[in-house]
Design goal:
Order of helices and strands of chain A: HHEHHEEEEEH
Strand content of chain A: 25-35%
Largest interface: A-B, 39 and 39 residues
Oligomer: homodimer
Structural class of chain A: alpha+beta
Number of helices of chain A: 5
Strand order of the largest sheet of chain A: 1-3-2
Number of strands of chain A: 6
Largest sheet of chain A: 3 strands, antiparallel
Chain lengths: 142, 142
DNA sequence: CAACATTTGCAATAATGTTGCAAATGTAGG
DNA sequence: CCTACATTTGCAACATTATTGCAAATGTTG
């Protein structure tokens, strides 16, 4: 049985509203590719900016989406795959930023390798972002 | 022979101005620890915000400092060590963000491990940020 | 020291993010 | 289906981060 947006919202004890359905729909349409706040704003022009911020925050807290670090000063978010939806995240995968098209993608099958910390440091979470040319752009270049 | 701020600026063909010397001094005083724009602003209250942005950009282009990715929407910068200062960066080290004190540090001796990309993706650069409790904060907790 | 190039500070503007509050919408019980 | 209650939305205001153009100030070179 396929998860509908309503299922996902209910399962995470979020009330089902038009805004949340639209935003979740948008994420489901992406293919492992991340969205910035402004992307969502452009797609759903009618929706208030603040609502988008609050929805993204709620989805993050519930583990429906995860945030992706980036140096460009704009937060990005992507759907969590698999067992992320019960409070504990499994988003230990590598993220890829394409310098050609600017897209950010989840490499769900590539997990962040372990690195040993220097004495005294205690690691909790590791994030890894690889940049380069993505599959789509390399095809386009041939 | 020890590098003075003036040496570093001249070597990178940057004209020697008070602003650049002050900012570079600040970085040299840090110990592998990163600064945000706002940190610099607070330390050097008299300096215009725009000058700080432009100086950070110039230092980045020359490879004197490097930027560090972070999810909190504020760029961070730290001095480049070693052979970074001739246009090509060697900042392939892991960065550590302490969730206690909020500081960001360069782990100069821990380099970012190689990961194999899925077919079609071409990697250029890898960044890794580990978060947890830093040395200083763990000492303070005992 | 003079002529020229570069940098600085200011003003204006844009993008991103947060908060409080009243109106609108969603949920649950009868 | 309707009412009462809880939650969410939209708006306004505001804070922070960042960018650009331009004239005045500063640095560099001969």
């Amino acid at each position: 049985m396929k998860d509908t947006t309503v299922d996902i919202l209910k399962r995470n004890s979020l009330s089902v509203t038009d805004s949340r359905r639209s935003i979740l729909d948008l994420f489901l349409q992406q293919n492992a590719s991340a969205l910035r706040h402004s992307d969502i704003e452009h797609h759903l022009g009618a929706m208030d900016r603040v609502t988008i911020y609050r929805t993204l925050q709620a989805f993050c807290e519930k583990g429906i989406i995860h945030s992706i670090p980036g140096s460009d000063g704009a937060a990005r978010y992507a759907l969590c795959k698999g067992g992320c939806e019960h409070g504990h995240h499994h988003d230990d995968h590598v993220h890829f930023v394409c310098t050609q098209c600017g897209s950010t993608q989840c490499l769900d099958d590539v997990h962040v390798p372990f690195v040993r910390m220097p004495d005294g440091f205690e690691a909790n979470k590791s994030e890894m972002v690889v940049s380069g040319t993505c599959k789509g752009c390399r095809k386009r270049m041939n």
